[in-house]
Input
Amino acid sequence: MDRHFSPPDYRERVRRRAAATPVVKNAARAFLVGGAICAVGQGLYIPLARLTDPRQASVWVTVILIFAAAALTGLGLFDRLARHAGAGTLLPVTGFANSVVSPALDSRSEGLVLGVGAKIFSIAGPVILYATLAGSLYGLALWVASLFA
Amino acid sequence: MSRITVFDPARRPRILAAASAVGGEEFHGPLGPLFDYHDESDRFGADTWEHAEGALSHVVLSLALKRAGMDHREPDVLFAGDLENQCVASHEGLGSFGIPYCGLYGACSTVGEGLTLASLALSAPGGARVAAVVTTSHYCAAERQFRTPLEYGSQRTPTAQWTATAGGAFLLSRDRGEVEIEAVMPGRVTDAGLRDPGNMGAAMAPAAADSLLRYLEARGEGPGDYDAIVTGDLAKDGSCWLSELLTKEGVLIRERHFDCGTLLYDYEKQDVHAGGSGCGCSAAVLAARFFPAIARGEMRRVLFLATGALMSPSSLLQGGHISGIAPVVCLRRREGDV
Output
């Protein structure tokens, strides 16, 4: 097969011709589903803000959306929606909830410590680590800046 | 042995019986009614997905033994493999048969590797008299092993493949069975430098082309000498790449090419992207679709190229590539008593 086969040429053709992800369709679905999730959040926020205060209401909305995403993950419905919604379910706080609950569910059969405990942050871990790091650096920069202000 | 083994026509290893078992998704595909056993829940009576795959391998070998009217003490050697780490499904599911066991890993090409080794074991002087080959894959166990947790919400690329929940078992004998193995040829690890785990078909196609061209050249034959050229699981995209690579070499297979990964699912109704994959995909389709066709005489000579994408998620993150491999097994209908 060393006859006409050139790996670099083949790689280039595969890269160019591999069936492309349907970007427009995916973006439209992500926009609709993501927008709907945010609209639900807003729909919850308005009455809650009246009952409590705006600060508490936004915390409650986050808690409710996280709980809903976790429950849908447990019922096996979240991934079915996400297959179509893509970034629409990934980007809001629902995606983060799913990324923690799904490995926890998945590794339940391996025990609570080495299964759930060790693997629960296998997807969300990098987000948690680097968000904490970025927050700390920002705080440090702010503190240093305040010394000269 | 040379790189290709063509058996003495009077002493060709024979396939005595084959059996297949699948999960729900595969049962609802176009080949559904052909499979011997299915479990809608994909659980096969087990508590975890890993154990379910073991149970699947146990079921499928039991079915093959039953079909052959054979006791589990009869096979002298068992070649088996799957996609899980340490090939756990094979040794956990099949260990209780008490058959001397050789664990194999050839990714989705494992059934071809198994049939190759089993026929060599049968043809060795003083070697095995009956050999068994079992390979399985399980969608849920493979997702956990190679990709993300099952309930994780993500989108796949159109070139991605769906690991089949399926298994196939074959019993090979020196002197019984209507289907003979005429020749076998192990594949070469073919690295085209591809790195996209969402496009395994493209990574396997060069291996299939390499094996097919080497095989046809060694035997002085062309695709026209076969009723069917069956590839393992190149799926939709990989099949196109194979066709293109072969056309460049002046070999046209299109009208007689079948791909197990393409046959297994219904693209219109099932959301499987490019098609099926997994050790069980080609094994179950060979056992349910092509083996009976050869045994009944509807096909006389079939070239079977199981295809495997040799992919390690760790190596890939370290900059490694996805290689392909494609062992060749030439199957033929037995003609009278030689």
In short: Chain B touches chain A at residues 47-50, 144, 148-159, 190-194, 196, 199, 202, 206, 209-210, 213-214, 237, 241, 245, 248-249, 271, 274 (CB under 8 Å). DSSP finds ten helices and 16 strands in chain B.
